[in-house]
Amino acid sequence: MRLSPSFNRSLWVFHFNSGSCNGCDIEIVAILTPRYDPERFGVRLVGSPKHADVLLVTGPVTHDMTSRLQRVYEQMPDPKVVMCIGTCGQSGGVFYDSYNLDGPVGEVIPVDVYVPGCPPRPEAIIDGVVKAIAKLERLEGESS
Amino acid sequence: MIPVFGIDPLQVVGGTIAVAVLGVLAGLVFLGIDRKVTAHMQARIGPPIRQPFRDVRKLLCKDSIVPENAIPWLFNAAPIVALASAIVILLYLPAGSIAPVFGGYGDIILVMYLLTVPALAMVAGGFASGSPYATVGSQREMVTMISYEFPLAIAIIAVAWRLAAAGIADPFSIATIAANPVWSVVGPLGFAGCLILLVVLAWVTPAELSRIPCDTPEAETELAGGLLVEYSGRNLALFYLASGVKTVAMASLAVALFLPWNISGYLALPPAAGYAADIAFFLLKMLVVVFFSVSVIRVGMARFRITHVVSVYWGYLAGLGLLGLLLVVLDVAFGAGVIA
After folding, report:
1. Is residue B1 part of a domain?
2. Which of A73, A111, B57, B247 has its CA 20 to 30 A from that of B196?
3. Helix, strand or coil for residue A13?
4. Chain A to chain B, count of Cβ pairs less than 8 Å apart?
5. Is the per-residue pLDDT at B308 higher than 80?
6. CB spacing of A39 vs B44 below 8 angstroms
7. How many domains does chain B have?
8. CA-based nearest distance B65→chain A, Å
9. Which residues from B are below 8 Å from A47, CB to CB?
């Protein structure tokens, strides 16, 4: 992996909704407000998966979204990180064992960091980003 | 070295490399300052000023994906052309009291045409991406270009015409415009006209740079990045650098047209320190231009719809520019200021 300190301090985030109830999505928007100001750490929300380093997935991955999620994941240039936001993406949450689910997220694409909660608080999502950076630093240390 | 066509090749090559390196560095620093200042105006802390350097380094270590239905040679050439043409503009613009590399060749009309080349390269890259989002973004970029060219031309022509009316030889040469501040030849009416034209130029700058409120061609929220949607890694880094260099080019054009003073004439300094003082003052003037025409407008406004870009630039700003031009003409007609 071509990781560097610059990579960790310039994470561009792409948000993907795989069938979420919008609760987690609103919390993601809340992080981007001046109150939490993630741009301090170089975190920016981008509009295209081609520009992104981190994929934020919300929702339990409904049947129709499976192929889209895989395609968006494959469109992201390496190196990349996947964060799963919310309980739905980990277990299906209240939609557990539903006939309409192909998820959870971990069965569709590889996930690096899970942030539990329904919805998780903005602080929890920021903690998830910090965990992701720590994981990247560990991989950087192992590869060098 | 033997001069070729009256140019010393060594001087041109050395000057071009120096301008390219300094232009890219200054561009990234200006982008960083813009982000920091914007953040402070929004009651945020914001990224450190070296953040654009980190972004570029990160983009350079990422994969560069060429989409399956893109035209690869055009898709890969567009970012290089955009950056190279943005650097070429800087070769014609003076920095402080240092004459531009191609000072004796080409004039302000050439600079006006050169300013369209980076945007055209982005348009070509967008069309070559083979993505509907990029195609819509490219079309919008072309519409934006058509909209801002007219007000920009009015501002440039009015300044050069006023200098010609004052009897100054070769008024379209950038060296002449920089050596004779337009404020020193105008009367009261012309002064008001030039102030209006300065405002027009300040509003053309965000359109030229595709910044808010004129970032309709990129429009992350509706076009997912517009004409840059398919770009990643190294190619995106080159576009990022080009946008920084374009910021420097537009700011130094505004400085050359309306704020061309140097301070070395007022201070008793040895020649080397005089150049350094002029460069520092030049950077300060550019910072003021970037602050008012990029940061303040960006914080204060939301994005225009593409129809609004056309009506604002062709309607209001062109009208305002013509009013400024009329005042400058009346200035000459009434015989105020310096007349030949």
Report:
1. no
2. B247
3. strand
4. 84
5. yes
6. yes
7. 1
8. 7
9. 219-221, 223-225, 229
Nearest to B140 by CA among B59, B218, B241: B218
**What is the value of ipTM here, to two decimals?**
0.83
Which chain A residue lies closest to B240 (C-alpha atoms)?
Answer: A51
pLDDT surpasses 70 at B4: no
In whole angstroms, what is the distance from residue B314 CA to residue B147 CA?
6
The tokens for B78 are 């567009």
Report the pLDDT averaged over residues B218-237.
Answer: 81
What range does the domain containing B145 cover? 9-333
> Considering the domain boundaries, does residue B79 fall inside one?
yes
Paired with A114 in beta bridges are A84
Domain-located, residue B309: yes
- Residue A1 scores a pLDDT above 60: no
Rounded to an integer, the average pLDDT of B128-139 is 88
pLDDT computed for residue B3 by the predictor: 65
Is the separation of the CB atoms in B112 and B160 below 8 Å? no
Q: Do B46 and A7 touch (CB under 8 A)?
A: no
CATH numbers and ranges of domains, chain A: 5-143 (3.40.50.12280)
% of chain B beyond a pLDDT of 70: 96
